[in-house]
Fold this sequence. Notes:
Layout: E1 24-26, H1 34-37, E2 43-47, H2 56-67, E3 71-75, H3 84-97, E4 101-106, H4 108-120, H5 127-130, E5 147-152, E6 164-169, E7 174-179, E8 187-190, H6 200-219, H7 242-264, H8 269-289, H9 293-303, H10 322-327, H11 330-337, H12 342-351, H13 362-380, H14 396-404, H15 407-410, H16 419-428
Parallel strand pairs: 1-8, 2-3, 2-4, 4-5, 5-8
Antiparallel strand pairs: 6-7
This protein binds nicotinamide-adenine-dinucleotide (NAD) and fe (ii) ion.
Fe (ii) ion (FE2) binds at residues 157, 209, 213, 295, 322, 326.
Amino acid sequence: MTCWHNTFDSETHETAFSIDPTSISFGPGVLREVGESLAGSKRVALFTDAQVGKLPMLETVRESLKKAGIDFELYANVHVEPTNASFEEAARFARDGKFDSFVSLGGGSVIDTCKAAALLSSCEGGLMAYVNAPVGEGRVVPRELPRHIACPTTCGTGSECTGIAVFDHLELKVKTGIASRRLRPTRALIDPTATEFLPRMVVAASAFDVLSHALESYTARPFSSRAKPVNAARPMSQGRNPWSDVGSLEALRLAGKFLVRAVHDASDFEARSQLSWAATLAGVAFGNSGVHLPHAMSYAVAGLVKSYRCEGYPGDEPLVPHGISVVVNAPSVFRATASSSPERHAEAARALGASLEADAPLAEVVATLSGTLTRLMRDAGIPNGLSALGYEDEDVPALTKGTLLQKRLLDNAPVPVDEALMSSLFRGAQRCW
Ligand SMILES: NC(=O)c1ccc[n+]([C@@H]2O[C@H](COP(=O)([O-])OP(=O)(O)OC[C@H]3O[C@@H](n4cnc5c(N)ncnc54)[C@H](O)[C@@H]3O)[C@@H](O)[C@H]2O)c1
Ligand SMILES: [Fe+2]
């Protein structure tokens, strides 16, 4: 007996899914609530990056902490697209400061750095002890972490709602991360007015991160395809489920409607705030279900960057912004995965704004979803595939090798993954249109 449409044997397979609620306040003005949210804290580490540190939001947060009588110290040195070295530097600051609570003000780079600093300053073992296996040891986070109030300033990652912290491992030339429910911030304060200052390409990259979180959550393998767990501890990447579907579909609908407007017009507050809300919904969804192939591939794309630089991001070193490194893979992936659940891929295309009959054949579903995606990408100014980021066919083996390390994400894919499939997906991602 099962409550959900389920093609798997309920004796041997998972029959339940878990929802870990995130505490969220969303709307203009919530940044003024940082101090109040930390009532009882004595000493707070406030994390931001150099660019966000120059914006008026930082003063709002400082004022709020001062008003609440909380002693704080600023760390404005977060590396955009963090690395193992930058995580470790932030952890040293956190250890030396003996803080009881943490605040992050910035995009995913700042929030993830703050998560890592909170973890590494309060638990034994270095960074690699907690990094996902097989890149790191994948050690379990042994205790609850200090309070962390996350204040996102991009409309993208949803990191304020997830238990994930991502970084580039410089020596291994691959992106990887830490995943534990204990990394999830205590509270998210999301003020969409922060997005007014975002450069055009930061909005474009983070918007496609949102869209990809939603599309990958919606098409991930179902939770019921996992083997029955031996205890109640389900993985954070538990697969798509009725809860993650709700946020994923609404995030797709909002992204389809507002993404291009939000990219091109900084004064379009409706579009940017709806995209912020989509980011939150997609963050809650993928934080509960997990993402899959486009993200797994992005970790190799970002880690092996050659000389690509992107307008709106710090230009001191080559960098592929996260959302771009993800979405360039998406059309190739969804062309290959649509047959795993044509009705879901069709529903996702409809949510993005395409019209598709209920009984459309698979070939039409594939063409419509990838056509809708690439139209949005072109309209938002996303580079046309891996070739536009400087990759060639000869890079496919290294990209494939880096991706095959992303076990947590590959396990969540809707189709079985092997080296041959990965190589063909990367070849298909050389150009998106
Ligand atoms: N932990 C998670 O669940 C999760 C999910 C997705 C992505 N990520 C990670 O997050 C990182 C990307 O984060 P992101 O896309 O939010 O961007 P980001 O934090 O890297 O910031 C991008 C740029 O925008 C600037 N910026 C940020 N907010 C601004 C504002 N309001 N006005 C003007 N400039 C602003 C920053 O200074 C930076 O130069 C990547 O490392 C990615 O891997 C994490
Ligand atoms: Fe992402």
